User: Fold this.
Amino acid sequence: MTDGSGADAFAEFLRELKDRSGLSYGVLAKRLHMSTSTLHRYCNGDAVPADYAPVERLARLCKATPEELVELHRRWVLADAGRGKKTAAVPPTAPATSAEPAEPAEPVEAVEAVEVTDAAAVVAPRRRTALVAAIAVAGVLGAVGLALGLPSGGDDDRGERPAGSVSVAGDDRAGESTAASPSPSKSSPSASPTATAKGEGKGAGGKAAATPSSGATAAVPLTVSAAPYSWESPCSQRYLIDKPSGEVPPPPIEQDAAAWVAATGAVSSGEQYVTLTVQGTGEETVVVKDLTVHMAGKRSPVAWNDYAMGYPGVGCGGNVPTRSFTVALDATRPAVVPEAGHRDFPFKVSESDPEVYYIRADASAYDVSWYLELDWSSGSRSGTLRIDDGGKPFRTSGNNGRPAYEFPLGGKAWEAGDGSSS
Assistant:
């Protein structure tokens, strides 16, 4: 057993989160892709994980608040350092006395890191969150395409635009359309064309914009890049596919997810994680007033096989980005709701100050087709952007009771998981 008040305090905090969640060790272990016995050891203080990522993932599954995530990280740092000190004190020739796998010793720097104040320990996750947000902005802006065009007038699955397309409308929600060619992959190059918008008032540079009846166009002062197949973490991402396991290719990396989904006819299983990058096209400030959910259809969940993207035995984790929102698609009137402790709309963007929004939509009882609309204003101008999946609504289906499959790390074929999807 790992000794020391640091390890005890860390384990106690984990137990509190686990008990509050109401989830069993078995359910949590399955979602974390670790063994139930390993999770027991963490929560009982018998072992301290060498990596913080699975701990953070566990906390998020238990609905920990941002403040609790910071406190958990502080306790893990203290517990991890205590383990390092104990390991360093063992003589090199001492025989092993436990059947449990030995936790790897930490470098001297990790031990010294806890000698600072608690405030310094809290800084680490905040810096990491800022770094992740910065990387997401730089990577997605430079890679994900944008499509701008008017709504087709229907909410069915028709349309030929690539993944992450966006439509635009002015105050009257109508107008001419303009073509754009975004890419479904976050790694593909893209341009940021302007789109047609009708409305009254002054446009960029103080020039008067055309009225709706004039037939003139005005450039929309912002762009939106949508990545409909982002992964919160590989372990949380699953897809339903109407094919036997022998006909399904191995899980892709996140950058190739859109192409993999298209090739297999997959549907997001249980939840869908959509990343939106919003940026102004000039120095003027644009207010992103609201983001709303619109339903295009609800059906019974598809009776297909459920395939997990994470590899069994590989730790998964992540943090909670600054602009994170959830959508309960099973609700009668789904809404975009900020994660606990996070700000809600409105936000401001410009060319030099973009925003990244992370939307986690979940479904359990239905197979749901849905899309988003983003309302913006700049000076006396305003408009609405429709955000969907290549001209079609996003699609997310419940997966309860569906046969579950996992692809072992280094394996050659899908294998049945330990029970059905939950």
